[in-house]
From TrEMBL:
Role: ATP-dependent carboxylate-amine ligase which exhibits weak glutamate--cysteine ligase activity.
Keyword Metal-binding: no
Species: Streptomyces salyersiae
InterPro entries: GCL_type2/YbdK_subfam, GCS2, Gln_synth/guanido_kin_cat_dom, YbdK
GO molecular function, one term: glutamate-cysteine ligase activity
Enzyme class at the top of the EC tree: ligase
ATP-binding as UniProt keyword: yes
Keyword terms: ATP-binding, Ligase, Nucleotide-binding
Entry protein name: Putative glutamate--cysteine ligase 2
Family classification: Belongs to the glutamate--cysteine ligase type 2 family. YbdK subfamily.
HAMAP family per record: Glu_cys_ligase_2 (MF_01609)
Record's catalysed reaction(s): L-cysteine + L-glutamate + ATP = gamma-L-glutamyl-L-cysteine + ADP + phosphate + H(+)
């Protein structure tokens, strides 16, 4: 009997005023209320800015259970925010102008002093997917083999077209803002767990970074859990898309691990080319062409998404997730990404405030 890998998700949410849609620096109050509501067993944590908060699910083998937990914590976040006079919205950047407020922790103050405006402007919300691995050696083998496909996940999750009240012309402007960190983005092949740890140590030895928590690769070994952590995605507007993201990431991890055990070498695509793929995915989402991972040549986005599904098909069949993944991809391609939905809402209402209000209602379910 095959053991199905566990998956956990971390989602970051914006705290906004329900009437104006403007981000509100209320995380301290919301976190206290969430802890009281949960009687001390809260899944929420503070983030870099006080206009956002984060929750983490438990590791799950069942994708339906994972989706239910995501919905539960979104609802709990909304309820706690409502007590504080706000609401939550699953958008990766604020459509409305905002002056972000750095959190009060010593670590956050250090980041603000060290990185200046880069830290100040990092009011962005991502989605991180953790998938269990048996060892660091297996984890690094996975990291080496999933690199070409990460840009497709970014395109599927694109949910940040607006920045300071303006359309950026990007589907995921969050990915461009996040790329300002010196340790972010795609990385080269590591070859082994020792190669990975040597690379991380070399970055830490520069003393540019505070600690291993600032290893912001698109995918990395978690420094807290026995997992591969894929960090490339925007937070998704629809919880169903978050569950789809988790399903596809687990499929990628399992497919890569099988390839490693079979002795198949990873694709040696250059980091510069991976950056081109990530830029294209952040720019267009699913609206235009993406770079096709096996060739790194532009192809229609829907074709590239289907190539991803084909790549992980065997793993999804074995975990029982194939039908749900096919349906989820069909729905997403038909409905469009969060960025597409936001632009449609603005076209219909003419108001970014109403865009935020509608997206907040969708976040609450």
């Amino acid at each position: 009997m095959r053991i199905v890998r566990t998956v956990g998700v971390e989602e970051e949410l914006l705290l906004v005023d329900e009437e104006s849609g403007e981000p509100q620096a209320l995380s301290t109050a919301v976190l206290a209320l969430a802890e009281r509501r949960a009687e001390g067993d809260s899944a929420f944590e503070a983030e870099l800015h006080r206009q956002q908060l984060e929750f983490a699910t438990e590791p799950r083998s069942s994708m339906s259970e994972l989706r239910a937990e995501i919905l539960r914590w979104r609802a709990e976040a909304a309820a706690s925010a409502a007590e504080a006079g706000a609401t939550v919205v699953a958008l990766a950047t604020s459509p409305l102008p905002v002056s972000p407020t750095i959190g009060t922790g010593e670590r956050y103050r250090w980041l603000a002093d060290r990185f200046g405006l880069t830290t100040q402007e990092q009011l962005t919300c991502g989605c991180h997917v953790h998938v269990s691995v048996e060892s660091d050696e297996e984890g690094v083998a996975v990291l080496d083999r999933i690199r070409p496909w990460l840009s497709v996940l970014l395109a599927l999750s694109a949910n940040s077209p607006y920045w300071q009240g303006q359309d950026t012309c990007y589907g995921s402007y969050r990915s461009r803002v996040w790329g300002r960190w010196p340790s972010s983005g795609p990385v080269e092949l590591f070859g082994s767990a020792q190669g990975y740890h040597d690379h991380v140590q070399a970055l830490l030895d520069t003393e540019v970074l505070r600690d291993a928590g600032m290893i912001y690769f698109d995918a990395r070994l978690s420094d807290r859990y026995p997992t591969v952590e894929v960090r490339v995605a925007d937070v998704c507007l629809d919880a169903a898309d978050t569950a789809l993201m988790a399903t596809l990431v687990r499929g990628l991890v399992e497919t890569a691990a099988r390839a490693w055990r079979a002795g198949d070498a990873p694709d040696p695509v250059a980091v510069g080319t991976l950056r081109m793929a990530a830029w294209q995915a952040g720019r267009s989402g699913l609206e235009e062409r993406l770079l096709h991972p096996p060739t790194m040549r532009p192809r229609p986005a829907a074709e590239v998404v289907q190539a991803l599904l084909a790549h992980v098909r065997d793993a999804l069949e074995d975990s029982g997730d194939l039908a749900a993944a096919e349906e989820g991809i069909k729905a997403l391609l038909s409905r469009g990404t969060g960025a597409h939905v936001q632009r449609e809402l603005l076209d219909r209402t003419g108001s970014l405030r109403k865009v935020v209000a509608e997206c907040a209602a969708r976040t609450r379910g």
